[in-house]
Amino acid sequence: DAGVIQSPRHEVTEMGQEVTLRCKPISGHNSLFWYRQTMMRGLELLIYFNNNVPIDDSGMPEDRFSAKMPNASFSTLKIQPSEPRDSAVYFCASSLRTSGPYEQYFGPGTRLTVT
Amino acid sequence: AQSVTQLDSQVPVFEEAPVELRCNYSSSVSVYLFWYVQYPNQGLQLLLKYLSGSTLVKGINGFEAEFNKSQTSFHLRKPSVHISDTAEYFCAVNWRDQGAQKLVFGQGTRLTINP
User: Fold this and answer.
1) pLDDT grade, residue A62 (50/70/90)?
2) A89 touches B: beta carbon within 8 Å
3) Which residue did the predictor score with more confidence, B68 or A100?
4) Are residues A45 and B108, on separate chains, in Cβ contact within 8 Å?
């Protein structure tokens, strides 16, 4: 039973380059979340989708960040252009939205380093 | 703004000793409460959750937590820890008036078990 899959696991890029992070949620889950984890700010929710529709993107730091979910089994988080302060671990999580609070299942994360 | 505070950033304990990891949140408005664990280089995994009912909830790996509404706390406990419990632990809160999906995480507590 595959969990949430994220790729790549590690990404090193130079400032100014475009970065695309990918996520495949658990099959059958209909909610998807993107988080960023840093030492300074901890774990922050960037954006989440229900049924492929963005519901809340208030955590997206600025216009350089964008996220898409073209179908139920794939999502991307893009940073263009990247900056050193974007260095962090980015997690994708998915859940089955029925009613009440929903357990979120996390992927292994993508460690992004921008030099 | 609503917030989650984990009072200890690091907790070192000896193997087979008891441990308590503290979590307080900012508002007594109806909440759902969670504890997640993160092992090195992995995503977060749910340990336990409080939704309603008994204020003492039991989770995986022998952990339990107690919801205290008057103190707005949700402390995590284990009576006897093992080396394998070495990990980072995150408290998370969902305030019901913000919708059933948004989680706010604490800064995390790094639990180190010494032999």
Assistant:
1) confident
2) no
3) B68
4) no
Q: Residue A115, Cβ neighbours under 10 Å: how many? A: 10
Question: Which three-class secondary structure state does DSSP give residue B62?
Answer: helix
pLDDT confidence of residue B27:
78
Neighbours of A76 (CB within 10 A): 15
Would you call B46 helix, strand, or coil by DSSP?
strand
Concatenating the DSSP letter of every residue in B42-59 gives S-EEEEEEE-SS-SEEE-
Backbone angles phi, psi at A101, to 5 degrees: -75, 145
For the stretch B13-33, pLDDT in tens is: 999 999 999 999 997 678 899
Nearest neighbour of A104 by CB, restricted to B42, B103, B108: B103
Report the distance separating Cα B113 and Cα A108, nearest Å: 23
A72 HSE (CA, 13 A, CB side):
9
